[in-house]
Design goal:
Number of strands: 0
Structural class: mainly alpha
Number of helices: 12
Oligomer: single chain
CATH class: Mainly Alpha
Distance between the termini: 21 Å
Helix content: over 70%
Radius of gyration: 19 Å
Number of domains: 1
Largest sheet: none
CATH topology: ABC transporter involved in vitamin B12 uptake, BtuC
CATH architecture: Orthogonal Bundle
Length: about 300
């Protein structure tokens, strides 16, 4: 229990929030209210899972918001050209993977600091998209794009099902697959991992590649909720992904954390805004509450790190 204290704490906080809503605002649990909140949180959860892999490897990626926007636009343009949705999905995921591979090549191949590389690519991709689209939405999309050509209820169910399947696959891979253990090893001590026969640079590259692919998938799932694609989408998503990972117990120093905690962290942060609405609290409190939660999570992680170092 001590090992998973952070994850249990976040899950308890989420349970407490839901209990308060159950008493004060039971209408929150009506499908017409709860499902849209879950659908909106699903793409952020995928980003947070990818970000968790990066942070576990003792790296960071602040370019995912810009990648998200470009992948969304590319998915919309592919659909506009008449591509079937499976191919549109492949375009989005491959585009994200290419962005991730570019970051990974610079960070793992040239050993450049990840914060510097991803800051540069964040600005580059966002400004390139602004120059290319000039703020113009991708419009006149086929009927099969929004909600994957299903009804709204069917599309929401499909989006949640895809997210759940990917999440469970990542949980299994991180815990049971050899590659998952390599990520923990590199994040804990890259030199020790190298002496054990693991290639830290290759692991780092693959982690950024996976981050990009998950960003492309998240962009597709998010874009499919709307009839048009906004080129400004994804703004701030990098901060939401990092926050969900850190709140969920992923150590900023790398090598520690799991995706179940990230799930709880993502839901906790996602439910704050609708909870404030149902409880009649000022919506301006959302950022303050989220910031306080993140600060507490970082402080707890720092305290644990110092304690273990003694």
């Amino acid at each position: 229990m001590k090992r998973h204290f952070r994850e249990i704490s976040v899950a308890a906080a989420l349970a407490l929030l839901l209990a308060v809503l159950a008493v004060k605002a039971p209408d929150f649990f009506q499908p017409r209210q709860l499902v849209p909140s879950l659908v909106e949180a699903a793409p952020i959860l995928l980003l947070a899972c990818g970000m968790s892999l990066v942070i576990l490897c003792r790296q960071i990626d602040i370019s995912v918001g810009s990648q998200f926007a470009v992948c969304s636009v590319l998915a919309g343009l592919a659909a506009q050209q008449g591509m079937p949705m499976p191919l549109v999905g492949i375009v989005a995921v491959l585009a994200g993977a290419a962005f991730g591979a570019f970051n990974g090549a610079l960070i793992a191949g040239l050993r450049l600091p990840s914060i510097v590389v991803t800051l540069a690519t964040m600005v580059t991709w966002r400004e390139a998209l602004r120059w290319w689209r000039e703020g113009e939405f991708v419009r006149d999309l086929p009927a099969g794009f929004q909600w994957f050509g299903l009804s709204q209820a069917g599309g929401q169910a499909a989006l949640l099902a895809i997210t759940l399947l990917i999440f469970l696959a990542l949980v299994f891979a991180l815990k049971h697959a050899t590659g998952g253990r390599f990520i923990y090893a590199v994040g804990s001590d890259a030199e020790a991992a190298r002496l054990a026969g693991i290639n830290p640079r290759w692991v780092t590259f693959v982690v950024f590649l996976a981050m990009g692919a998950l960003t492309g998938l998240a962009a597709l799932l998010s874009s499919a909720r709307f009839p048009d694609v906004d080129p400004k989408t994804g703004t701030g998503h990098e901060l939401r992904a990092i926050a969900a990972a850190v709140v969920g117990g992923v150590a900023i120093s790398g090598g520690r954390g799991n995706l179940w905690g990230v799930l709880a962290g993502a839901l906790l942060l996602a439910f704050i805004a609708p909870a404030l609405v149902f409880l009649g609290a000022p919506p301006q409190w959302e950022r303050a509450i989220q910031g306080a939660i993140i600060l507490l999570a970082v402080a707890a992680d720092g305290w644990r790190t110092r304690k273990e170092a003694r």
